[in-house]
Amino acid sequence: MDRRAFLRGGLALGCSAAALPLISHASFATAPGEARLIVVILRGAMDGLDVLRPAGAREWRGLRPGLAGDDGLALDNFHHLHPGLSGLMPLWQSGDLGFVQAVSTPYRDRRSHFDGQDLLEAGTAEDAPVALRRQGWLNRLLQGWPGSHAQTAFAIGREAMPLIAGPAPASSWSPDIDLSVGAQGRRLLAALYGADPGFAGPGAAALALSETLEPDAEGGGQRHLDQIDRFARFAAERLRAETRIAALSLNGWDTHASQARTILRPLARLERLILALRSELGGLWGQTAFLAMTEFGRTVRENGSAGTDHGTGGIMVTAGGALRGGRVMGDWPGLGEGALYAGRDLMPTGDLRAWAGHVLHGLYGVERAVIERTVFPGVEIGAGRGGLIR
């Protein structure tokens, strides 16, 4: 059986009880810290060289004569932001948006989306034991977290999230569920189960969630943006309460053809998500770290279909008041012929897991030894990472 298809089926079953604690009713009071973490998987291999354009590199326009177009919005004297994310410029200027360039997981050469995403969400090397690769790195974080329970972490959306899969309890919610319970049905449920401590609270929460699901607006683009708004409202509601970690994914980044056009919609979703979360979280935005990562980058050269193919080195997008933004981090490898990976891709100069591990260390005080041995086995997170945490 296809593992990802099986996970999707299991998640769909679990989502029908969206707000129900899965295992424990333990208080979150013993869990460390007030910081919030939001992890977004950008499925389809986002082209980091298009989102964060190396306009200062002399080879840039020659490698991408069609895609380079205008340079975009200047972030510094070398990097320009894709115009599709222009709404995020105020966050860049306030230090609430940043980028880590030329990063990757250990995945190399085979360029399969599913395999790349599995490795990204497992947070392991390709030769790690199978049992370890079946757990998500966020779940391994939760396993050693005192007081962690089902409401501590939420996976949001219809996609299976191996990132959060594992023995530690976590909850899921899909914006497409429809409980379809009328007023009479609600009264009946209250009469039958209102005195049941195991049902009353979670049942009321699930019914309340069903009321937030508004009809989809006309048009696919607007419908997806409306869905993003629902993601953000739900995530913020949870994060204002007991939840400390939220995970979700945004699809649509596989831009083999007509990339100048096809990348606009996923860019709009990413921009909308970040801005909606900042708005919904209010004062908690200052305690929030947002990390958006993708399974691998794309080729340096534009292909014959005005798109790009599967590559290696990419970028991580950071946002939130808990992180020090307004800058591009990581080492730039160059675009010269001898600097490319396999003669075609941006050379990775950093391990995406090390940067994420540094965030966990700074955000929650997780010991480096725990991160390097358990959360991201075999990874050295380093001492500074440029002071990513404020």
Write a compact overview of the structure shown.
The chain is of the alpha/beta class and 390 residues long.
**Distance between termini?**
45 Å
Q: Per CATH, which architecture? A: 3-Layer(aba) Sandwich
Number of helices: 14
H/E series: HEHEHEEHEHHHEEHHHEHHEEEEHH
Radius of gyration: 21 Å
CATH topology: Alkaline Phosphatase, subunit A
Poorly predicted runs of 5 or more residues: 1-31, 208-220
In round numbers, the mean pLDDT is: 83
Q: What is the CATH C level class, in words?
A: Alpha Beta
Shape: globular
DSSP strand count: 12
Beta-strand content estimate:
5-15%
Measured as a percent range, the helix fraction is: 25-40%
Structural class: alpha/beta
Mind summarizing the main beta sheet?
A: 9 strands, mixed
Number of structural units classed as domains:
1
Fold and architecture overview:
- With 390 residues, the protein is α/β, with parallel strands linked by helices.
- It has a single domain, classed as Alkaline Phosphatase, subunit A (3-Layer(aba) Sandwich), CATH 3.40.720.
- The protein is built from 14 helices and 12 strands.
- Strands 1, 5, 6, 7, 8, 9, 10, 11 and 12 form a 9-stranded mixed sheet that branches.
- Helix 10 runs parallel beside helix 12 (264-281) and helix 13 packs across helix 14 (368-375).
- The longest helix has 21 residues, at 220-240.
- The radius of gyration is 21 Å and the shape is globular.
